[in-house]
């Protein structure tokens, strides 16, 4: 049975575990066996997935992951081990295993591991900002709400199918390295509906809600932070217009890009490119490296002078927002790009020390107790212009262009140069006015060409915090949630492809 | 939102000794015995894994982990309707099993009727088992790399001596799944999964070459041989050329073909095809099963008993979704032809979608094999028969652009080579491609012999594949990527 738990309280089922005793057992064992550094994590991660197909329940899955992890440095080499039993014996065993792993690995390690200093924060707790714990709401209520929303869309003439899904996550984490001991909890959810139209000729189109995943509670579905009624009301009309829209003519266009699309372009072409572990080559065989190499810090003209990008762990409702990372580093906010120039990177304690950049900015995370922390993305956001224009004012400044709304397909190369994105909907802009939708649109560019083509950014009234639950990185693969805020922007002369022509039709 | 919390707060709810001592089999039996619902499925998953990762000729991260998860699927029936509740928990104590069952039953009571409702399988209709239910648990540990790590250390020295840097990842996993149902099914499968990716780069990182393989236990890995092969490919890149975007005759090695075929396989669900939403939908209704897709008599199949690619011979479904059904737990998975003689012959099905489509019950299987009957020869043989074309190493960041045609985009990675008059004559820049694996089938004009391969892009999810190298006419390189 669900326990109704007041927001603002750390899950009592988690804090009932003997977290300190487990940590003491692990850290003492690690030190006894020769570790120069040891840290301990215990985590409980609850997830719930609900999926409806045409209003019928298709998926209901509750997950509950619990475990502990010990990370050590022995003679300059990392060792990591995890366990599923939250007992002192299992914690001590994991510590021994981590030391054993470090000793096996030492033979092929030639870079001694050292960590940047971080102030001791003592004993701290941190909770994300939410009102209603989604795990306190009955599954029946959630199914009923998604079913009612699905019904509204299915009632429209052109809607053949409706997919509805709701992902919810609650993370509880206990971390200690002996000088900082942090007990933290955060909640996030992602509601999504997609309407599908299938034409008589077999052609099909989809239209999805733009509501971003958010570090909020169940209140997000009942009127706080997003107007689902308004969004659901306009989807059938948008879908009908998309089905009837002309196919785009490939070529170069000026683009006005909505935050609902641009957040993902920021994620791929700025977020990953400014991870210093990548830029230094540590992800070279898998996620890749970065064109924004360390020697270009302070000089690379990443984009036009109106470009100001920050990294943070502090944005309210941000998916990457947290009090302390998995190395005990307190959440911060800092510049990555100022005046269009690369001025910062995302760091963990090892990389900060290695590169002499001083203190870590708190980007070390593991996605579960079974994984070792790696450098993970902060909320990376493009700042609006203080007195900047509205989206319609930006559109008014374009004579021949396309307004891009909503994210869909994405792909970028292993150095973060060449990317291609599609979207939910594309509107033709003629003489500063929207002139109906276009189909089959993709935009393709090289990162620095694209951001240097940014003529203007919108004002704070256009700013939206978008994001994703499913950012993948590392081997073994880890998944992290992250938010990206941005205003609407104007880009000049971007290459537009026709995806039907690309398919050879 | 930071504040102090009281130090030394009592943590007295559970004794420190509370833990799981039951075997997975006993946990399944205890959960089934505790169930009060009409039908119940219990899945116990036991996993262990070990990994090593390296960059620039030095180890970076490593680890070992163990996992244990119990999933209870409670089914409440009334007439033809069934309501389902699924709750899965890791790190469960033995004294919490009954509580987990009650949570699943509660979720079932909350649920609306399941569209995919079916009777559970009888023991007679289910199976076959992968291994005996009662055999002792299998596990892996860091020692699986003992010989490999030594060879890798030697390869670091050889590479460093040649001005090369090695990057990569080795992982070994053992996953045991135990499926028990209130209808009497007891089935177990033990799945070893090992993979190695080795990437060599020139000291300035400007040139790159890649090799990967799947292995059951790392005893068969020739690190020195792989490193020598990568050194040869970096040598090919001594002459480099710039080529523009365009449609090229292209030789896809087995790993690149595997990544494209796997995405097509994942897009071959019968439900979405019936709903008119995929490349396999027939305009006006129904599916494209029966249509000719390839010009060569290609065969695409899955087979749980395929040598070197063995995988679970029965369905394990933790949750229902578009392409899986919890009611199908234990359903036999046998050799299935998805494409035969170049013709689409089957889509991935649950028993529910098979009823809707009127097609055979062909559940998805965890391996994929493409073969051209009678074809022989390696990638090198295809090169020798090429007057002018591109030879790829592998593909990367593959994403769907348009489901109507199954247009995919992605990048070439770690070596694109120009072939002229039967020989590699230099390395070429990388490209972004836009291609549909479905339309590409009709432009495969030649295939070599089928060999085991590691799908570079999808190996986090799918490692068991065997593919031939193929020649594709007019592969669409949409733009140049500056990445190296």
Describe the structure.
The complex is a heterodimer of chains A (505) and B (484). With 505 residues, chain A is α+β, with helices and mostly antiparallel strands. In chain A, 22% of the residues lie in helices and 37% in strands. Chain A contains 11 helices and 22 strands. Chain A has helices spanning 12-15, 19-32, 88-106, 139-154, 228-244, 259-271, 276-279, 349-355, 391-396, 447-452, 499-502; strands spanning 37-53, 56-74, 77-83, 122-127, 161-176, 180-198, 204-208, 251-257, 309-312, 333-338, 341-342, 364-365, 374-375, 379-382, 400-412, 418-430, 433-438, 441-446, 454-457, 464-473, 478-486, 489-498. In chain A, strands 1, 2, 3, 4, 5, 6 and 7 form a 7-stranded mixed beta sheet that branches. In chain A, α2 runs parallel beside α3. Residues 1-6 of chain A have low confidence and may be disordered. Chain B is globular and about 70 Å long. Mean pLDDT of chain B is 93; it is low at 1-18. Chain B contains 9 helices and 21 strands. Chain B is an alpha+beta fold and 484 residues long. Chain B has a 6-stranded antiparallel beta sheet with strand order 4-3-2-5-6-7. Chain B has a 6-stranded mixed beta sheet with strand order 12-11-10-13-20-19, with helices on one face. A 5-stranded mixed β-barrel of chain B has the order 9-14-15-17-21. The chains are: A alpha+beta (505), B alpha+beta (484).
